[in-house]
Amino acid sequence: MDLLAGTAVLLFLLGAVASGYCLGRLLGRPSGFAVALFYLTVLFHVSTENGLSLSASQAGQIYSLGAFEAVLMVLGGVIVFEFIKNQLRQQPQLQQPELQEQQRQEQLEQANDTQHPELGAATGAAAGAAISAATRAARDQAWPKQHAHALQLLQARINEYGQHGSSGSKGSIILQLEPELLQAGPAAEAGSAACDGDDDEEEVWRMLPDAVFVDVYNRLPPAAQGAMRAVCTHWADAGKRTITRLRPRQFPVQNVSWCFPSLKSLNLSGCTKDITPAKLRHLRALPGLQDLTLGCHHRLIASTITDACIAELVVLTSLSSLNLSQCVHVGDGGLMSLVYLSGLRSLNISGCVAVTDLGVMLVAQLTNLTSLDMPWCVKVTNIGIKALTPLTKLANLNISGCQLVTEQGVVCLSAFTNLERLSLLNMGYSKVCVTDSALERLSGLTKLRSLNLGSMQLSNKLVTDDSMRCIAARHRELTQLGLMSLDISDAGVAQLSQLSKLQALNLRGCARVSSGCLKHLSALTGLTDLCLLHNSRLEMDDACLASLAKLPNLQILGLGNFQANASASDTCLVPLAASQHLLVLSIAFFTGRFGPETCSMLSRMSQLQHLDLQGSQHANATLLQAVGQISTLQSLHLSRCCRIDDAALQHITELSNLHTLNISICSRVTDTGLAAVTKLQSLTHLLAQQCRDVTDAGVALLGRLTKLQVLDLSLCERVTGSGFATFGGCRSMATLSLNGCASLNDGGLRAIGRIVSLTKLDLSNCQLITDVGVGYLRGLAELTGLDLALCIRVGDAAMAAIAAAMHQLATLKLNGCVRVTDLGVSEVCGIPSLLTLHLDRCVQLTDLGLGCLTRLTGLTSLRISRCPNVSDVGVCQLSRLSRLSTLSLAQCPRVTDAGLLALAPLTTLASLEF
């Protein structure tokens, strides 16, 4: 082929490429590629026929075609492309302000977890009071009169929004503003005349400083804050610019610094599952961030934060408070990164079970720490406690649950002479470490204002009345004292009467404390919180309860689980009426009667918020009629009240503020009673365990409770689950417990599978459900906890369904699921988010299944007790689970000492059962 032919072919190719490019921009890439392919096919045909030996005339023709095609398609295509592109741009520009406003509103609603309640009359009144208060506060600051006029516009805009802006609003909102504070004079009148149009009105809004919006906003009640931001555009903008505290449901990532530049406190406990090191890197754009929460409450699923996430925090040099509670994946490596945060003053690593003495030594380098919470760091020993001595500024220290710490470690705390708060609950695993001798050594901590000793479960016989004398003599500044399950008597309590500043006293479970202690406690007139729960020798009669009337400032009183003296009258509780400030009252398991005077007394407790009557034998409809008059009540505990029936529940239907109701083991409650409960529209928690006459009809009625978050119907044997078909619209439902519902079947699971907001589901001991039913739960993508223990018909197919749909599952309990084999366990191992897995009594589990578990690299807790086919071979493979902190191998007959020794590489292991 000569030079001319080669040139022609090259130009032909360029024309084809140019055509493909231009048409690709216009029609999409597939169309452009098709055109290019067509030209290349023509070239191939011509080349094949002529053997690439093109004559001068053929070459000239191809040359002309290629040149013409290239010029025409490039110029024409670009012109057409730019024309169409400009036309497409014009349409969005017309809607851009509206779209931007919509985006701002959506971002603010999502980021600040706001549900925008309706602006009803109560909200309007609250807004008016807030604006009036803000105006009065600023009256002496010589505000420009335009600002006063802007406040008038705020009133008008709220009125307008109340009439038209909310689809469910109830008429106009009337704000009671103080006119003399909003007199703007001639300037305001002129401004009003200039603000006839929306644009001019918006300009007046711009004149109002952000600080005024914030001042008014901060004076609003929580229920009105979300709605106020919907009043105007500028309100939302100002709100974002001035918000300093944020607790989002979803991590806003890139928008966090743009939307909230003034952020100082960020709580990410509600969205830790979404956090990665890359996302945390965006926090670098918040140089003013001072308070960061990455942990969660100990009753929730453990946080998924890792050491790599903590490493991204080293640039946040302004950080002064960091909460890593329940971050079970954070170990010594993560704490090493914190060494660079020299300004850190408060650190919470409670429940960080991977932290060892080495990590505590690293924390000791943060010499500015004033508060350190590390309860249930179960690997910390005396060495770690002693390493903390350089932290001379510590005012708060919590090492509760550090069970490897002995008496020697407790004595080391005497070096922290600036301590104001100290918690030593549940200490000592094999030997009690808090003793009279140890407390004597701590007598130099004279600045203590809060001290907690003892245990919720085990009795400590080594702390006696001698320690009470020491505490009364050396710790005179105490305002809060917790003494749980200690071997102290009334004589020891008598010593505590010298603590004139004491405001809170907890004597829970102190078996030697009797009713005689009350005469000593009456001297502590400053007490606001008194707990005498679970004291078996505490017998109440009229005289004893009358002595409590000498404590006029009581706000929290716990008298549960005591015995009513035989001489006690029906009016023995009446003296409690003297405690006008009571917010919380527990008289659980009260064996006396509730006479008319007692009922009248309860109805007059106008500030009571929480009432515990569980186990009260004589609680009946008459009592609930009185309780129904306590309009401030938020929580009511009626479990084990055998006389409570449907008629009694009718008396509490007017409690509009009630959010928690417990009617468990009230055997007389039926579907009719549940119908009455549905009138409590503020209810978020309902516990109705073992109400055996409740059926699906009653359950269906509960679907009306649109705010319900937690529902417990365990041991309701007649519930099949079909009633949950009405729960499809319950977007707030998060926890459902159906343990032991013997009639629950696959059809019921089909209905439950439509409650897509569920995060925790307990189906344990529901023996009728099968793999088919579990398959219906595929829609529960948000589920983090699932309990299928003792579901004997559930097998490997169910495990496959769970692994395919529940990608956020952190806890899975399969205890006693005898049909689950190694194949099912292999399916489960495809859920990388799993932290806790229970396989006790899965009798078909073998070493092969244990080998699959090594894929769950994040696993922190594993139970495989009573698995007869598991041997040392499988246990050896578990040594690769580097984050494992709890392991149970109890009653596995084929596991020997050799298998246990193979677990030596698991340096994170804190608890081992064998």
UniProtKB/TrEMBL annotation:
Coiled coil stretches, renumbered: none
Name of the protein in question: F-box/LRR-repeat protein 15-like leucin rich repeat domain-containing protein
Highest classification ranks of the organism: Eukaryota, Viridiplantae, Chlorophyta, core chlorophytes, Chlorophyceae
Principal location listed in the UniProt entry: cytoplasm
Protein origin, superkingdom: Eukaryota
InterPro entries assigned: FBXL15_LRR (IPR057207), Leu-rich_rpt (IPR001611), Leu-rich_rpt_Cys-con_subtyp (IPR006553), LRR_dom_sf (IPR032675)
Subcellular location field: Cytoplasm, Cytoskeleton, Cilium axoneme
Keyword terms of this UniProt record: Membrane, Transmembrane, Transmembrane helix
Gene3D superfamilies given in the database record: Ribonuclease Inhibitor
Any GO BP: SCF-dependent proteasomal ubiquitin-dependent protein catabolic process
One Gene Ontology cellular component: SCF ubiquitin ligase complex
Species this chain originates from: Tetradesmus obliquus (Green alga)
Domain F-box/LRR-repeat protein 15-like leucin rich repeat, chain residue ranges per copy: 758-828
Transmembrane region(s): 28-48, 60-84
